[in-house]
Amino acid sequence: MSGVHKNPTISFRISDYERREIEARIKESGMMKKTFFTRSCIYGRICVVGKKETVYMLVQTLEKMQADIHKMYDEIIETGQIKEKESPVDGEAYTDIEELQHDYLANRTGTVEQMDVNVEAMARDLQEILRIGAEQKRLWEVYERR
Hints:
The protein is mainly alpha-helical and 146 residues long. It is 70% helix and 3% strand.
């Protein structure tokens, strides 16, 4: 039957500012929107770990943003205005510096949070590895004393 879905739809209204910040975080996570929203609601934090490609992508995003910001700065110094720039969040072209500033800030925040979560996960993994190593050492010492 067309138009009938097995699962209910959740919808809500958000401001343009919130939408762009959410879009930035979704883009940085590399997840589908459905997965991102579901995990955000259930777990509170999004953690994308395990792939060096993910971290590399985040670093590339920050490097591109830095280069773009330097270009905009040069344009403002030279002409007093910026040329039309593509938003890192939604890909739309903007000439309003405040719109771009918000998008770059939202994108940077999402990227840094993703990197922070990756570092936290790696630290937890390392602690677990060290704990297991210490336990193995203790068991080996007990075995050798027999």
